[in-house]
Design goal:
alpha+beta; de novo design (two linked rop proteins); five-stranded mixed barrel; single chain; elongated; about 240 residues; 2 domains
Length: about 240
């Protein structure tokens, strides 16, 4: 099989045998895959310490079912400033674990690849913020087809205009008008419009939340993500500890 050139973000690395490395990669061209880099811990010429968590690389590899073979890597960005700050590390690890769990192997998703790269670039250059995390999450859910209805009540079709009391239903993964609600969690009426705004801009740091709005956005997004992940994330537990 001939070699392919790809761009990738390193999601996970594991030492293997005496000098090999197995890396989980999210590539722009091939989607998510796992590859073995033979003798990577000794070969500075071929890999040069590039196979680090959160790094963005160009790679030459041979695509194989199960475990591809990494032949050479060069660095686009090491995201070195992330590794200088434990809170940044926690946010980046959370993004990478979500990517590893939610995306299938071998299925390219250019919009998601751009989103992940944009958040890692943001973390590398700016202090981490809860608003940026929620911006990432709602865009993730939107790209993967898991976004809840944010424009109108799915029961009565009345618009979420930022004024009417709302309720989030974790079991139904839905936000409704308070008048249409059974049991659920009250959320501020401004939250769905803010989450819609996060989808209409392509830039982190452009949408502002109050602390109360952030808490309500977190209620919605945490429940939705947990429903699709199906288990507690180690990185999320770590993120909550450092926050």
């Amino acid at each position: 099989m001939r070699s392919s050139n790809v761009e990738a973000v390193v999601l996970k690395v594991m030492e293997y045998r005496e000098a090999d490395v197995i890396a989980t990669l999210f590539t722009r061209e091939q989607g998510k895959l796992r590859g073995i880099a033979p003798n990577a811990r000794k070969s500075r010429k071929r890999f040069g310490g590039a196979l680090d968590l959160f790094a963005r690389l160009t790679l030459t590899l041979r695509i194989r079912e199960g475990l591809s073979r990494l032949e050479e890597a060069s660095i686009v960005s090491l995201s070195s400033h992330i590794r200088e700050d434990i809170t940044k590390v926690a946010h980046a690890a959370y993004a990478c674990e979500l990517t590893d769990i939610l995306l299938p192997d071998g299925m390219p998703n250019l919009r998601y690849y751009r989103l992940l790269c944009a958040w890692l670039e943001r973390l590398d250059s700016s202090p981490p913020s809860p608003a940026d995390r929620r911006f990432f999450e709602i865009n993730l859910l939107n790209i993967l087809g898991y976004r809840p209805e944010l424009g109108q009540c799915p029961v009565c079709d009345s618009p979420f205009d930022g004024t009417k009391p709302l309720t989030f239903h974790p079991s139904a993964h839905a936000v409704t008008c308070r008048n249409c609600a059974g049991a659920g969690i009250a959320v501020r009426p401004t939250v769905p419009p803010l989450l819609r705004s996060c989808l209409s801009t392509g830039r982190f740091g452009t949408i502002s939340f109050s602390p109360e709005e952030l808490a309500d956005a977190g209620t919605i997004l945490d429940n939705l993500i947990m429903a699709h992940v199906g288990k507690e994330l180690k990185s999320l537990r770590f993120l909550r500890e450092v926050e």
